[in-house]
Amino acid sequence: xRHLLVSIVVVSLCYGVSSAAFADDELRGIEALxxxxxxxxxxxxxxxxxxxxxxxxxxxxxxxxxxxxxxxLEPVTSRGLFRFKAPDxxxxxxxxxxxxxxxxxGETLTTFRPDDGVAERITVPxxxxxxxxxxxxxxxxxxxxxxxxxxxxxxxxxxxxxxxxKPIHRTLKRKLAQVRLEIDRNLLLPVxxxxxxxxxxxxxYEFTDLKANTEIPDEVFELVLGDAVRVNDINLPD
Length: 238
What we know:
Layout: H1 2-5, H2 38-54, E1 58-68, E2 76-85, E3 89-96, E4 100-105, E5 108-113, E6 118-123, H3 129-136, E7 148-153, E8 161-167, H4 170-173, E9 176-183, E10 190-197, E11 202-212, E12 230-235
Parallel strand pairs: 6-12
Antiparallel strand pairs: 1-2, 1-11, 2-3, 3-4, 4-5, 5-6, 7-8, 8-9, 9-10, 10-11
């Protein structure tokens, strides 16, 4: 499960948007953090991030993924397009170095490699659904408080806040060592997400050219595979 899921989806909540997407009089800003310390500041920052997240109906963004593993001679860099539509549909289009499409909707995760003519369609059992929602970025940050301990590093403007999440529960600990979020001080949303797996592999995502609340047709998340594509259906064990 770790190889099938963690290697192809980003860890939680990597939705950054331009400040133009929000009205200043509708959403609170960084002033809400003034004078706070310790856990109170972490809680206030999480509240601000969630406020931005819940204002999103959709997001489109370019991304760069850097992955390091003992299986690679050197880190591998991939680029592509990320799309999200509330409440829980996600699509990744990898353009280079190899073309790949990843779609997560409902309880189904589909990966398709056009050059190989092969797709994997994974049905995720309810037991693992929370873990997949974390990875796919469809679980709000405030709901992760019961699954992760959170620490905050504030190095002052203009550097981003750095929020480090470490899993508490055994199921997540078997897959993740920690998640590191860089939260833009103006957007008050994660714009860089880096996670380390339990076996030492690490993946970093950076998002650019962000377009929030733009129209994305539902059909984008309905991956139609032709008759020539070999589909491997995988039902993960409960």
